[in-house]
Amino acid sequence: MLRVLYLVHDLSDPAVNRRVKMLQAGGADVTLAGFRRGKPVTSIEGLVPIELGVTRDGRFGQRLGAVVRAATAIGSALGAVGRPDVIVARNLEMLALARRAVSIFGGAVPVVYECLDIHRLLLRSDAVGVAMRGAERFFSRDVAMLVTSSPAFVEEHLSRVLDPGVPIELVENKVLELAGPAGAETPPAPRRAGPPWRIGWFGALRCRQSLELLSAFSRSMGGEVEVILRGRPAYGEFADFDGYVASEPYLSFLGPYRNPDDLPAIYGDVHFVWAIDFFEEGQNSKWLLPNRLYEGCRHGGVPIAMRGTETGKFLEARGCGLLLSEAATDALRAMLGSMDEVGYATLKQRVTSIDPATWIYGIDDCRVLVGKLRALAALRTDGAAIEAAA
């Protein structure tokens, strides 16, 4: 069985659970290690994670210090871990620790760089940005593979960082469904069509501009549109998230949810899916393909995206969803103000007629991913053996 050491920057990130489950389903024996934010994480998919320290969201200096401390102590932290066949490092800070871990295990362990976001510090034009890009180039030298979730990340940034020959594996933020063939399960019946129309904004809630736009739009519609928020608010990005939402008559924050357990119910309770993020406008937010895109479409929601973004291009190529040309209340009113049941049914049919595999990863996809990791391990082992013989 392929032994994978998975290094993550946030053990509480729901996407970590999904990736661990994907690796396990594909036939890998996973050891999980990383930083936590908030309460200790005692178990993830049956694994007891190795804690490397505590970090704070949005505090880069503190995170950098935590990485430096972890680098000095990683030998003892991983002392009881057998030599892995592959190390997967999620995000840049874990890539730095992965190189340290390779030296502890005696070298010749391939490292996979999993990059699912391009942090804004990497894109700055000042000395900080130059230093960050230099660090990324340094720590990504000799990586065996890049795993990323959007082609735009490669086109807009990573192609300038990695060596041209590094293999790239696109692993989108699809819904993981392991019981039977992909798409075998039928989502439950959705909410009845017709006003009030419900827009669902789910997942990582970090975009102040989206919150303000949805607030103004829902107020302007006088109860014809409601906005349901669920997930994990980035409280540091809002002056008073809870107070703001409580003061809005047509906004409701219904707390966190379990992924994937609650997805059918929460998406079945809305008509439209807010797949827009202005958090890092023109950069990461323009390039990403978010979880909510795949989750919403899988469960029959009609996505709303910005035209010209990677999400907008993705939907346009498939002939589904609603594309907003301008982030303004009037533009949303023009899009949804005259929505009726017939128009909505047409939009929904365009989503549900698309091959479910567009939105889903099944067991075969997991096996393919682990198979590619296994090939990396075999290639590195064979190369090391040849060098030793020489």
Report on this model:
There is one protein chain. The protein is α/β, with parallel strands linked by helices. It has 2 domains: 2-178 and 362-389, 3-Layer(aba) Sandwich (Rossmann fold); 197-358, Rossmann fold, CATH 3.40.50. The protein is built from 14 helices and 15 strands. It has helices at 14-25, 60-77, 92-104, 127-140, 151-156, 208-220, 241-247, 263-268, 284-287, 291-298, 310-318, 329-336, 341-352, 363-389; strands at 2-8, 28-36, 50-54, 86-90, 111-115, 145-148, 168-170, 175-176, 197-205, 225-233, 251-253, 272-274, 302-306, 322-324, 360-361. The chain has a 7-stranded parallel beta sheet with strand order 3-2-1-4-5-6-7, sandwiched between helices. Strands 11-10-9-12-13-14 form a 6-stranded parallel beta sheet, sandwiched between helices. The chain has a two-stranded parallel sheet with strand order 8-15. Mean pLDDT is 91; it is low at 385-390.
